[in-house]
Amino acid sequence: MEKQTLEHLARQINTDLQETFDSIGVTLFDFKVEFGRTAYGEILLADEI
């Protein structure tokens, strides 16, 4: 279940970033995301490079 959640979040982040970069005429080739957890166990985006 957790793997599926992370994959879904990564794909959504990819879509959002591609749309943002496309809107300013820049091609997104590669990026890295790092996930973390809150004190309550919620998964969140910790970093994007």
TrEMBL record:
InterPro entries: SAICAR_synt/ADE2_N
Ranges for domain SAICAR synthetase/ADE2 N-terminal: 4-49
BP-aspect Gene Ontology terms: 'de novo' IMP biosynthetic process
Domain of life: Bacteria
Molecular function as annotated in GO: ATP binding; phosphoribosylaminoimidazolesuccinocarboxamide synthase activity
Keywords: ATP-binding, Ligase, Nucleotide-binding, Purine biosynthesis
Nuclease among keywords: no
Catalytic activity: 5-amino-1-(5-phospho-D-ribosyl)imidazole-4-carboxylate + L-aspartate + ATP = (2S)-2-[5-amino-1-(5-phospho-beta-D-ribosyl)imidazole-4-carboxamido]succinate + ADP + phosphate + 2 H(+)
Gene3D superfamilies xrefs: ATP-grasp fold, B domain
Keyword Iron-sulfur: no
Pfam family, one: SAICAR_synt
Protein name per UniProt: SAICAR synthetase/ADE2 N-terminal domain-containing protein
Organism field: Tetzosporium hominis
